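Hi U.,

Before I forget, here's the chain from the pilot set. I'm dumping it here mostly so it's searchable later in email.
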Amino acid sequence: MPVKNRKPVQRDGFRSGLETTNARVLNDAGVEFEYEKHKLFYIVPARVASYKPDFVLASGIILETKGLFDAEDRQHHILLKQQYPDLDIRFVFSRSASTLTSVFKKSPDGGKTRREDPVTYARWCETHGFKFADKVPPKAWLLEAHEEGRWVAIRRAEGKPQL
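Structure:
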């Protein structure tokens, strides 16, 4: 995977004039060095993120309405489900048949071919265990009884975790 925001290597093998100057200084001083040969790993510290549900019903059901369902939204809902599996988050999409992946893909000859099975909002929900509806929530969702377990999950998720 290419490194983002990196300057391309110049003709002299360095990425900037400053690197070129310093390499020249090191060479002129007879100092041995290696340039961009090593890769050092580190952990980016975790951060606490927050989310405000669109609607929380008296039953404890969380309704999240989505027109556009982008990668960031999907990721935070996966994290919420992993960390709080008892939350009952349900989606109401403007169109659950919208695709997350491009309907067309490049073929080896450079043309475009239609994907046999593009991933839709609906399929994403089914894959990740979320209930969903189009336009408005089903009446059955609105008539579901209060469940204390849902509220316990909401209260647990409202507590800010320590890193």
